[in-house]
Amino acid sequence: MKSPLTLFPDSCAVMAPQYMGSLAYYAVMAAYGRVIVDASMRYDKRFKSAHRCEIASTHGLMRLTVPVGKTAHSGRGWDSVPVSDHGDWWSDHVVSLESAYGRTPFFEYYFDRLRPWLVRPKGISVSELDAAIDREIRQMLHLPAEVSYDIADAPDCAIDLRRGLPEVATVPYYQVRAGRLGFIPGLSIVDLIFNMGPESPLILKKMMER
User: Fold this and answer.
1) Is residue 2 one of the residues assigned to a domain?
2) What's the number of CA atoms in the CB half-sphere (13 Å) around residue 43?
3) Could you tell me if residue 3 is inside a domain?
4) pTM, 2 dp
5) Distance set, CA 80 to CA 39, 116, 199 (Å)
């Protein structure tokens, strides 16, 4: 895949961790020359995107949630909140992704790169899971940004986007069930990757062009 044009090559953005982050998340990430993902950002149960993503299932919008351990509370960072092994959630996520995207043009080319992280967790934190999947996704997209997961690396001039991303344009793209379900915006980046493959960075670039 070709890298999208970096709109702010000399700027640094601080972003929150996301599980299989949204299209908007990666459109913004692609626009900056440097990104700090704050793995130690304080746990907040209202901040669902750290352990939840949305995909387009055979019936429409579907949420995939990674359960967190009972020790999670507001005094800890996401880097110390453990991923729970309750309910074999990883198996549910694999089955859901296979069902939702098994017939998309690029599923077979990319899914096996995510599969190693969709297994029974062994002492892994939410931030560690998010970071591992994020690294793989950025490689799939060939995103050029320099990314760190340590907030101590953030320069004083960094733009803080942890509590909200800038508005991005909605750019319709091919979705395998759009004829029946209509176009569904705002999904996980995997929806774009499985449907559009090498053209994905072009869509991300258009989302930031206003």
Assistant:
1) no
2) 21
3) no
4) 0.94
5) 9, 21, 36
Q: Tokens for 93?
A: 């996520």
Q: Is residue 40 part of a domain?
A: yes
pLDDT of residue 73: 66
Kindly state the average pLDDT of the residues 189-205: 97
Radius of gyration of the chain (CA): 16
Mean pLDDT of the chain: 93
Distance CA 44, CA 74 (A): 6
93 contacts 120 by C-beta, under 8 angstroms: no
The secondary structure of 134-198, three-state, reads: HHHHHHHHCCCCEEECCHHHCCCCCEECCCCCCCCCCCCCCCCCHHHHCCCCCCEHHHHHHHHHH
Average pLDDT over residues 97-120: 97
Q: Is residue 89 part of a domain?
A: yes
Whether 51 contacts 126, CB under 8 Å: yes
Name the domain count of the chain: 1
Q: How many residues are there in the chain?
A: 210
Is residue 16 within 8 A of residue 77, CB to CB? The reply is: no
Domain hosting residue 188, numbered range: 8-208
State the pLDDT at residue 157.
94
151 Cβ partners below 8 Å, 6+ apart? 14, 36, 38, 39, 40, 41
Structure tokens at 171: 């750019």
